[in-house]
Design brief:
alpha/beta, 7-stranded mixed β-sheet, 7 helices, 7 strands, globular
């Protein structure tokens, strides 16, 4: 019954905020739109806690207002809204799977995000390269999911080259993020499981590492800590 109630409230909430964001996306500037997106993230966190019995603990320091790249594990639909609630106004690279939700194209465009193909190819030739030039003058945190999509609990997907391209071209530190949210909100499953969840911001990776070293370090750090959080949440 609690899963049913959480699903009803969450998706109703999402629908309402989608309409509000779409309206805000027609207003001049980004301020109202981003404030609405951040409000959605905070409402999602409250909904999970009070309706679903899933309190979200935050460990480490979210890089609010810092020009860094946030490379996060992605296990559940609320990951994105929760990250915005924690990091505030940020830029983000988003997979085109989100297109299945109505009105998203306009919202994503006006929020200043870059949509890329979920299989790792840019939606239009050179889109990610063009995004790098825009992002270079944008000092907000930049969110990317290096696996390119959601991964089930215990699963590691291939880390894609886009995260390294951003790291190398922008010359910014990368903040890895681990989570065990998939234990409570399994990918593509209707049933949710009450209990605490954790989002953990880890030690930044400094700029300047070679591709092979950076990619291996990023994956090792995120996946090792994610497995530890999963074990903690199952104990």
């Amino acid at each position: 019954m609690r899963s049913l109630l959480l699903n009803i409230v969450f998706w109703t909430l999402s629908g309402v905020f989608a309409i509000l964001c779409y309206i805000a996306a027609w207003l001049p500037g980004r301020r109202v739109l981003m404030a609405t997106i951040i409000a959605y993230g905070k409402a999602t966190r409250l909904c999970m806690h009070w309706v679903g019995g899933i309190p979200v603990e935050v460990r480490g320091q979210p890089p609010v207002g810092e020009p860094v790249i946030i490379a996060a594990k992605h296990q559940a639909y609320p990951d994105g809204p929760l990250m915005v609630a924690l990091a505030g106004d940020l830029n983000f690279v988003i997979g085109n799977g989100i297109e299945k939700f109505p009105m998203v194209d306009r919202i994503v465009k006006c929020a200043g995000a870059t949509m890329v193909d979920a299989q790792g190819h840019t939606r239009a030739q050179g889109a990610l390269q063009q995004a790098v030039r825009r992002i270079a003058d944008d000092h907000r945190p930049l969110l990317i999911y290096p696996e390119g999509g959601m991964a089930a609990v215990g699963v590691t997907r291939r880390y894609r080259k886009g995260v390294y391209m951003l790291y190398a071209e922008l010359g910014r530190a990368v903040v890895p993020v681990a989570t065990n949210l998939g234990l409570r909100w399994p990918e593509e499953e209707w049933e949710k499981h009450p209990g605490p969840a954790v989002i953990e911001f880890l030690e930044p990776i400094p700029p300047g590492l070679p591709r092979e070293i950076f990619m291996q370090r990023l994956q090792d750090v995120i996946e090792t800590r994610t497995r530890e959080l999963e074990a903690e949440g199952q104990s």
